[in-house]
Description:
Elements (H helix, E strand, L loop, with lengths): L4 H17 L24 H4 L44 E12 L11 E6 L5 E7 L4 E7 L18 E4 L19 E7 L14 E6 L5 H6 L3 E7 L23 E11 L5 E2 L12 E4 L2 E2 L2 E5 L2 E8 L6 E7 L5 E3 L1 E6 L2 E14 L4 E7 L8 E8 L11 E14 L24 E12 L2 E4 L10 E6 L3 E8 L6 E5 L4 E6 L2 E2 L4 E4 L10 E4 L21 E4 L4 E2 L1 E4 L4 E7 L5 E7 L2 H5 L3 E7 L17 E2 L2
Parallel strand pairs: 1-4, 3-8, 9-14, 13-21, 18-31, 22-25, 24-36
Antiparallel strand pairs: 1-2, 4-6, 5-7, 6-37, 7-8, 9-10, 9-11, 11-12, 14-19, 15-16, 15-18, 15-20, 17-18, 17-19, 20-21, 22-23, 25-34, 26-33, 26-35, 27-28, 27-32, 27-34, 29-30, 35-36
Amino acid sequence: MAIRRRDLFKFGLAAGAVGFFSTRSNAQPDGDLKQFLCLPDGLPPDLLAHPSPRSTPFVAEMNIPPIKQPAQKPLHPPPVPGAHQRYKEFLPKKFYEIHEQEFLWQYHPEPPYDKGSWSWGFDGITPGPTYQVHYGEPILVRRYNNLPPTGKSKVTFAVPYTTSHLHNAHTASESDGYPMDFIRSGYYWDHHYCCFPSDHDPREKLTTLWYHDHMMDSTAANVYAGLAGFFLFFDEQDSGNENDPNPRAFRLPSGKYDVPMLLHDILFDQDGQVVFNKLNTDGILGDKYTVNRRIQPYFKVERRKYRFRILNGGPSRFLQIFLSSGQDRKTLHPFTIITGDGNFLPEPVCATSIYLSVAQRVDVILDFSQFKADDQLYLQNRLEQTNGRGPSGRILVPGDDIMRFDVIEATGEDKSCVPQKLRDLPTIDMNQIKRRRVWQFDYRGGVWTINGKGAGDLSTVSAAIEEGSAEMWTIRNEGKNWSHPIHSHFTEFLLYKVNGTVVGPKQIQTSDVEDPLRRSRFVNLPPAPATAANGNCGFKCTGNPIDRFMGGTRRDITTLLPNDEIEIFMRWYDFHGKYVMHCHNVVHEDHSMMIRWDIIPGKSKKKQPVSPAKSKTKPQG
């Protein structure tokens, strides 16, 4: 497993060069393309160099990943308690085994896609199976790397050294998916998830998370190859049961009416194989929209309410999604939004469109009972983006279809609910702040940088933060031609200021759709309506929806548009160790836009002993 970062980069660049010139590993570079070897400005646009083969929209049915089931037998060998912080306090109640594998995956039933595209995933599928876990029920996940070893894989652009990050779980460092905590083929890693919110504060609970590879220098390639999946948290309020008799339960649509949707845009070669150009340092764009790794699928929906958990999986495209109908797509239908970045809003929000930078998530409720059987609706992206650096800000009409909903009659009574009130947010306490820091995101000398430096090998600790403390961070975009979705691991943040404007605790970020300058503004959540006869249930969109939902005040992605400066308030509790902050345009991350920060014991805290992480990396039993 001993491999140096610069050697990994050389390997990845070589594999990327092969993928750029041809998707066949034994092909020779085309002489006409040698002129583009000057990095990065001389590269031809990927979408012009090799557009994907044609595919008919709405032929493939949307894929729904299965629910991951716990292991039925004890793990062998058993986990090592000393390799985990607080293991004996939070003994796992369930154990899971999951396998990273290579396989043929059918993105579309028409040629050339019908024979399958070589992909990576978990347990033979991509996205991987969906975890459903409950707060108060710790688990342990044993992740096996069963990928072909270096040089043997049919996926030539990715690197078979892996780590796995549960975005954005409150997790000990050794289970967080730190980019240098990687394993090679034939090894496994145990991830211990304690499943309690930060500082045991119920306001800090999360709902929709996702897991994805986080390999140093190869996150974009490995996730693009298929190493991603959903991880859903439940509790007594968000119980996953729309018939829950508990008066505190939200009774949101559940079971087959609770649908995760992972959005990726992907580029294919003429043989239907996935194309990833590792010489492109700006960002990777595809010309085929996929939902759960199916190209422009259709999905049959009953005339009732659904909960859709929508995730922009990247790697580089920003999205602004609309729900439309009609041949001309001119009729728009609002979304009822209940979460942003996996955090419940205080109350639902109605919006005409939803803005998603890379790795952002929203949970929306769509009620199809207002439509007739055989009606068709379209989920669309209308945000223009012509290169990997970020969107232009222009809205294209009618835009690009991502998928189609086909309405059918309901098969039973809809007893689900849209609560009028959801979850209170944590508050900002200025008295807790121990330090203020400024992080500047820039592009220098062909490298994406933070405070003028690249990631190196992550041996430098850019911030040492005391456990139990709070800080105010200024996140600044020094560029006028690019955008960055910034993600810091381990803890959510609260927005304090955006471009000098103080953000109220119950405000929603929005902007006018037609504003070419993309100036964000904030609107107050409407006061919650009086309690209806059916209690907390019965929210409906009334009045005018906001133009564009860009997020609430609690998030894990700081979306930096050109020249933005955003101040965020963060707290660190419960664990120690090493973590990272990076751009979630993961092409930028892989080309050095990442820093390491550590949580260290506070003055009154004793350091928690943890065995070296390598003790968790063992050959398969």
